[in-house]
Structures are given as C-alpha cells and as structure tokens.
Design a protein that fits this description.
With 383 residues, this protein is an alpha/beta fold. Helices cover 36% and strands 12% of the residues.
Length: 383
C-alpha cells in the first residue's frame, strides 16, 4: 500500500502525517491489518528496537474523586464497587512499588484520585518519592495527581520525580461530553507546567468512549503538538456503576489500528499500551508489542490486569526483551535527562460511519475484575 510506505518514510524522518493519512489508517480493512502492523512495526523498531519498558502503578488514594469524568470508576457519584481508601503512607507506597520493581518494572507511577493536589498533598507525595528513590537505585518515578497549580511541578521535580502524567483523553471538540468539572484547556495547561518544570511529560488518550475516528486522530495530533515523551493509549474498561458501562465498541483489530496510528503520528515517543489491553486486545496483545514499546505490569488503579508473570512470558515469546534500568528509553535526540526527559525541560468508541473493520462483539464483562489486592489491601500485589 502506498499509504503505508509513505507513513513508514515519514516515521523514520519524524515527519507528521497529514490528518487524512492518519484517518486512513483507522479506515483500513481487516485484510490489510497485518500490513498495517508490519509497517508501524518498522517505525517502532527503528526508534526503540525490540525493547519493552515496564511500568508499575501504585494507587496512592483510591475513590471519592470530586470530578465527574464519565469513564472513571472513582468519579463523583460512581456506584462502582471499587476499593476506597485515603492516602497511603510513604512506607506503604514504597513497599507496593518494590513489588513491581522486583517483577521487572523500570518506572513507578504514583497516582492519586482528585481534582488536583493541595500543597500538603505535594509534601506527602514528595516524601513518598524520596522513600522509593532511597530504596531503589535507578528507579524512575512518575507522578499523576491531577491538575497542577503554579509551583507544584517544580516541587515534585525537586523531590526527585522524573515525570508527570496528565492525559488529554479525547479531542478538544468532544471533551465536554465526558467531563464538565474541568476543561480540556486545564489539562493542556498541566502538561505544559510539567514541561516547564523540567519533568518528562506523559500524556495520552482513552479510546472506546463513543468517539469518532476524527476525535481519535485529533487528540493524537494534539499530543504530537504538545510533544510529551510518553503517550499512554488506554482502552476504556466499561466498569459497572459508571456512565460508560455500556460502551462496548472496541475490537482487537480496532485497538491495533489505533496503536498503529498513534505510532505513525508519534514515531519517536514512548507509546504505552495502558489500561484495557487484556479486555480488548485479549489474545492479540503480542501483536500490539510491534506497535508500542511500553506496557503496565500487573494491575491497574481499580481493576485487575494480567498476571505479571504472564506479561513477562508474553514479551519473551513475542521475541521482545524487557528494557533494563541502565538503558535510556528514548532515542538520543530526545533523551536529555536520566529517564529521557527533554534537556532543560523545553517544549519538547464505536466505529463510526466510514470506519472499516470487524463489527463490535458481545460485551466481555467477564474480563473486567475489580482490583482487590495490592495497595490499600492486606493481599499481595500482582507483579
């Protein structure tokens, strides 16, 4: 396909595809899917080889969020039967992180529900970051605490944070359909604050919320413009008790197209398969490693993931290798800091009409399991 040859050439040159080219990737047929994966795989291997970075989530504070994000089981008014607990102490968080690191993770992602941290919360998380860094040499720490106020990103950086995550989630034009308590512009502002503070910015999207192909392409093009170092691609986990519990539109084939499009638009960025891969990619997960160079190990914030041992076996069986702590994730032209941050902190749904591919299948609610182990419980974590 001339389209794929063009996209590979652009990916190797770090040239942004046109909106029409990105849309064409999402409109490819199932017959062409392996060709799409192979083409995007060439771009992935050019910049990242066969390495897979492992990340591990620690949910510092679960549930009872005042925001109304429709996709979230921790949202205001959520009836999802999830774990709810207040802040973990630094030693508890460090213990949870140690399990993921022992399982092979290179980065620990510290996440807390809420609109954004208070200054006291930043102090609390700073103590946690220091505790994890003191006990684990070479570990990367990413914080995800919501919307940041002036000066908070700098304080997290001073405490030892390497990165900050705040996802755009969907396109600006449809953002108000999924959240009303804050704006798309608020999210962009927080990503820019992280950049300005010298943190490695991490920002991604959620697919499967009822968005169109145009929405998906527009949010990924917006991410390209923001230029984060990491782009997590989440696939909606429709949790019972949330407004989007009935949004079962994704197929494994569509998920692969979304990942391929993201790789073509963001060729030299850490593309991470985030929440929902077990639910929507299922047995096609190994193919997705040809597109993304990063995954989460073990469980997610409020739902269970694939067994950590199975993740490691999948990576090895697919012919990939786990990225070591001594290896820099990003290509040399992007890697200005220890974990691949920009030097100096500079700016670095359903298939809609016109979309091709397999029709959505019956909802796989059997694959959604609420997390009952790890942080906030007395049970051993999955790592």
């Amino acid at each position: 396909m001339n389209l794929l040859n063009t996209l590979v050439d652009k990916g190797l040159r770090r040239e942004t595809p046109t909106r029409e080219e990105a849309l064409a990737v999402l409109a490819t047929s199932d017959d062409d899917l392996l060709d799409v994966v192979a083409a995007a795989g060439k771009v992935r291997r050019h910049w990242f080889g066969r390495r897979v970075k492992l990340n591990y989530l620690v949910n510092l504070k679960s549930g009872l969020c005042p925001e109304d994000c429709s996709y979230c089981s921790q949202r205001l008014g959520s009836k999802a039967d999830i774990l709810k607990y207040t802040w973990l102490k630094p030693d508890q968080a460090s213990q949870a992180a140690a399990a993921g690191l022992a399982g092979g993770a290179k980065r620990v992602c510290l996440v807390a529900s809420g609109r954004g941290p208070t200054d006291r919360d930043v102090d609390r998380v700073s103590d946690t970051i220091k505790a994890i860094k003191e006990q684990n040499e070479g570990v990367e720490v990413c914080a995800c605490l919501g919307l940041l106020s002036d000066g908070q990103a700098e304080r997290l950086r001073e405490a030892g944070a390497d990165a900050y995550n705040h996802n755009l989630n969907t396109s600006e034009s449809t953002y108000g359909d999924i959240t009303t308590t804050h704006t798309y512009a608020d999210r962009v502002d927080t990503v820019r604050k992280a950049h300005a503070a010298g943190l490695s910015a991490c920002s991604g999207l959620i697919a499967g919320m009822g968005e169109s192909d145009e929405d998906l392409v527009d949010v990924v093009l917006s991410l390209r413009e923001l230029d984060p170092d990491s782009v997590p691609v989440n696939f909606l986990i429709p949790m019972e008790g949330t407004p989007l519990a009935k949004e079962w539109h994704l197929t494994p084939q569509r998920c692969l197209r979304i990942l391929a499009m993201t790789r073509f638009v963001c060729p030299d960025v850490e593309v991470r398969i985030a929440g929902g891969r077990e639910v929507h990619l299922r047995t096609m997960q190994p193919l997705a490693l040809h597109l993304a160079n990063s995954i989460f190990l073990g469980d997610y914030l409020t739902s269970e993931g694939q067994a950590g041992k199975a993740d490691l076996e999948m990576i090895a069986d697919a012919g990939f290798e786990v990225e070591g702590t001594g290896e820099v994730t990003l290509p040399e032209h992007r890697a200005g800091g220890g974990c691949g941050s920009h030097e100096g902190g500079g700016a670095c749904g359903p298939a809609t009409a016109g979309s091709c591919g397999s029709a959505p299948e019956e909802p796989r609610t059997d694959l959604v399991a609420v997390r009952r182990r790890g942080a906030g419980t007395d049970l051993a974590p999955n790592a």
